[in-house]
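Entry 14: structure prediction run for RGS domain-containing protein. Input pasted below.
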Amino acid sequence: MSGCLPSNPWVTDNDTYWAMNAPSAAVPTRLRVEQWAFSFRELLEDPVGRAHFMDFLRKEFSGEKPPPLLPARAPPTPGFHQQFLAPGAARWVNIDSRTMERTLVGLGRPHRHVLDDAQLHIYMLMKKDSYPRFLKSDLYKDLLAEAVVPPETKRRVFPFMRKPRHSSPSPALLPASASREPSGGDGEA
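Run finished. Output tokens:
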């Protein structure tokens, strides 16, 4: 058992918990980094985790487009096809031929869901390929090693969890030679 994590900032005046878990925290907590390994969604929903995952993808040349130019949901622009989907495109997106065909047909008659198939395909590729490699990478292991472990508060969760007392050992646990007492005549000869 360990002590409490930093106290709840809603109940006390201590805001340590918020500072350690802020979206812009320079060094994430160990619990936060471990949480990224629970699921791909956990990693993507955390801004710090997402930034480190993008760094990993860039180092592996998996990043299709730099993050500042990539909004959450981008509507297709006129040059979109030439830049990402056309054969020999400078930043070709890795999707299968069937998904590519459906996307190109949809771009002929654009609608709001035209890129959903391509987005799902890329998401699944990252989830099944890039994400497991990220968790096994030195980058993730270094993040885990450098992560902040929050200091425990003085208050204990369970009051009976105190330091053990240093008392004398029980006579039952002593070796037989040390516990032998002189007998008063019980028939030894």
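Notes: Residues 66-70 have pLDDT under 50 and may be disordered. Will compare against the previous run tomorrow.
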